[in-house]
Amino acid sequence: MLHGYALLALLLVAVALIVGAFPLKAFVGNALGGLGLGLVAVFILAAALKTTLGSSTVSIHTTAGIVAPLLSNLGLAGTWGSVFAVLAIGAGSMTVSHANDSYFWIITEFSDMEASTAYQAWTLATLALGITSIVWIVVLDHVVVALT
């Protein structure tokens, strides 16, 4: 099993190096960093990956690999920037749990919910969870920045 994890780590490093080699850093810095939308962009990337792939773990690792070389360009340089980027990735990776997510089926089966009910209750609840989380993360980031 270590072989699989080593391959995943190598893949993430490769993605980070590729992203770092493109002029994407300047584009991201100009487009998002100056607007203070870095945390929101990180959250959206993690949430999009989670929603499409269904795996929080893959979403976390892939987003971290893509975002790591872009932190300073996103306005997230330094220790606190990294902390809040991790929080945004975590919030995004728990957003919109639906049929392609194994946890959706755990919740559905153990609570004796019909799939249609789970879509209405669980999927919408995880959407609300994600949006509420990123709002509070951005607010907390602004508080920390103001205090330091």
UniProtKB/TrEMBL annotation:
<protein>
    <submittedName>
        <fullName>D-glycerate transporter</fullName>
    </submittedName>
</protein>
<keyword id="KW-1133">Transmembrane helix</keyword>
<dbReference type="GO" id="GO:0015128">
    <property type="term" value="F:gluconate transmembrane transporter activity"/>
</dbReference>
<dbReference type="Pfam" id="PF02447">
    <property type="entry name" value="GntP_permease"/>
</dbReference>
<keyword id="KW-0472">Membrane</keyword>
<feature type="transmembrane region" description="Helical">
    <location>
        <begin position="31"/>
        <end position="49"/>
    </location>
</feature>
<dbReference type="InterPro" id="IPR003474">
    <property type="entry name" value="Glcn_transporter"/>
</dbReference>
<dbReference type="GO" id="GO:0005886">
    <property type="term" value="C:plasma membrane"/>
</dbReference>
<feature type="transmembrane region" description="Helical">
    <location>
        <begin position="121"/>
        <end position="147"/>
    </location>
</feature>
<feature type="transmembrane region" description="Helical">
    <location>
        <begin position="70"/>
        <end position="91"/>
    </location>
</feature>
<keyword id="KW-0812">Transmembrane</keyword>
